[in-house]
Design a protein that fits this description.
The protein is mainly beta and 171 residues long. It contains no helices and 16 strands. The radius of gyration is 17 Å and the shape is elongated.
Length: 171
């Protein structure tokens, strides 16, 4: 499987194929790697990379608030990544096409609301941060799927949330 992934505005091409049980061959921007990978929980991956140092990483991957978006946590840092960003026509400058109608912002995984960045009635831009959720010891900014007005904030700071819970509605 080959796809494009955009991380922090940088587009990379990645090809991954399973070689044997638990082992994968990944080619990142033309550089091949062998990866021993295993799932850990609902959103976790344990990855052991080839090479001189034989480095390993625990990676958390959860769905983001937009189509194709993933929240990726590595070494206590969280970044947003967009799969096939170029193929979906997402424009980095304007945040992509506008979603039609009311859009809900949902918790991508269980966690705790750290802070709300907007209030009911506020005007928001597409991709503007709306709420910060702490999950798996990482803080994740969830962003507005469209330009619009905050119709409802369904949570408060300190609330625990389950995956899929509606956090806000943007109209």
């Amino acid at each position: 499987m080959t796809f494009d992934i955009e991380i922090n505005g940088r587009l990379r091409t990645i090809s991954i194929e399973r070689t044997t049980a638990g082992f994968y061959r990944a080619i990142v921007d033309g550089h091949p790697r062998v990866i021993d990978g295993a799932r850990v929980g609902s959103f976790g991956l344990s990855l052991l990379f080839d090479g001189v140092d034989g480095s390993s990483r625990n990676v958390q991957v959860a769905p983001g608030s937009e189509r194709g978006e993933l929240l990726i946590g590595v070494d206590g840092k969280s970044v947003s990544a967009v799969l096939n960003g170029r193929r979906t026509g997402r424009a980095a400058a304007d945040g992509g096409s506008q979603a039609d109608g009311e859009q809900t912002l949902v918790a991508p995984m269980p966690g705790r609301i750290v802070r709300l960045l907007v209030a009911r009635g506020d005007e928001v831009a597409a991709r503007q941060p709306i709420v910060v959720v702490e999950a798996m010891k990482m803080e994740n900014e969830l962003r507005s799927p469209k330009t619009g007005r905050v119709k409802e904030i369904a949570v408060g700071a300190g609330d625990s949330v389950e995956a899929g819970r509606v956090l806000a509605i943007i109209e």
